[in-house]
């Protein structure tokens, strides 16, 4: 067990994400006044130990300390409470309430999609958490099922949003240097992917993707390289699944608008989803059905969305200027010529994804338009500075490569460097199919499905989704030489055959020893040699087999007659 500060002891890893490792830990002594929750000795907590690049970057440590009050004051029934922040040598850690239960990503994988009513009610609670944080000026920026923990609450599942502020910490010059991708391609809002100014509307986009995934089992845009997925966020329309009723689709589609100004506020989203859940349930009355059908009117945008600090930084190359309203067509001018005769826009996939392939994002990136302040190519304006797209996409590629390479890396001795595996109790397996649907096509389900409690005490090891592990510059241990197989051709049964032969030889030798060295010959009254005796026995047995064969043949013949 490794101490963290003087107050906490790490016990076992729960899982690892892009920004660090989460541990189950125990409180050693009551924390000081600087902690939001002092805690009691012996209490169990969860501690996210941020990865080393974050902890080694002085800017981030400063930001971490500056934002501690924001992180510590975020309290809401649907937000995982941050109890304390620890800065100790090269270690940065967030102490949180421990949530016993799976995360939504894992739950979806094991149980399949939710019913539309269940999805609406669960997302409504997430929207409540977002509304509270947006009112406090905090934007999550990395909303995805893996960041929603499902707490067991008197038999019901209670979604709790975690990782607030982490994306903001990670989005630092330090990480830009190491080309770390901040965000997850499948959940990134178009404006984030483009490096435009971001507001709380990015979380609403994330909520739209999450809802889509809850009812279908997968996010609307995926299946290709990171570049292709980002491109789809910019220009593709989500395909409507046939199982989603009209009112719920109205809400999802509004959340997924490319223009952030057209997305609803978090508060309106929560309200609208509850109206939808009532109106599409089996017990809905005509007034509730009518209210759900006109849900579009409830989805007013936020007149004063919370801004993401730094996202309008002029060094981030924002061709439309900080604070300018988003024009969906403007993406065309943002993805300029690749040398072809006409203008190349976001709607033209061949222009954005030329034949060089997504494996080389720097080659895919078209040249920046000339003459815009702060952009590469302009004399005297940091000509070497890469475009945000280039950084993000190269980072996404690096991240994939890293994941593949690090499958071979052996863990170090320090538990903080060891690759952890999430250990959670396995839920009761359920068939991977959507729940039966009733009137209006959807069951009345006032709460999302219950999480089946573990059936046994033995925890099941859970390998978290592949994420980047240690920084690329860390020395890797040499790979163990591959064990040469004694059966290189992999002939089935060869091992068994060898075993049998070996056994026969042993029996033969043992028999000979007994024959020669024991008084066995005298007892059975023979002077034959061992070999002679064996061949007599063999002849006798083959004689019996021959007679048996004749007998069977005769019987068969007489039966046929
Ligand atoms: N407070 C908590 N209590 C219990 N388990 C937690 C807690 N916070 C996170 N976990 C678990 O720890 C694991 C890693 O969490 P983390 O937030 O680092 O990963 P992630 O969300 O997949 O990655 P990312 O850093 O990219 O957001 C997840 O499986 C999550 O379920």
Automatic annotation (TrEMBL):
| EC numbers, comma separated | 2.7.11.1
Q: Where is this region: Disordered?
A: 306-488
Record carries keyword Ion transport: no
Specify the superkingdom.
Bacteria
Report keywords, A-Z: ATP-binding, Kinase, Nucleotide-binding, Transferase
Q: Where is the Protein kinase domain?
A: 8-276
Instruction: Output the InterPro entries linked to this UniProt entry.
Output: Kinase-like_dom_sf, NEK_Ser/Thr_kinase, Prot_kinase_dom, Ser/Thr_kinase_AS
This chain's protein is named non-specific serine/threonine protein kinase
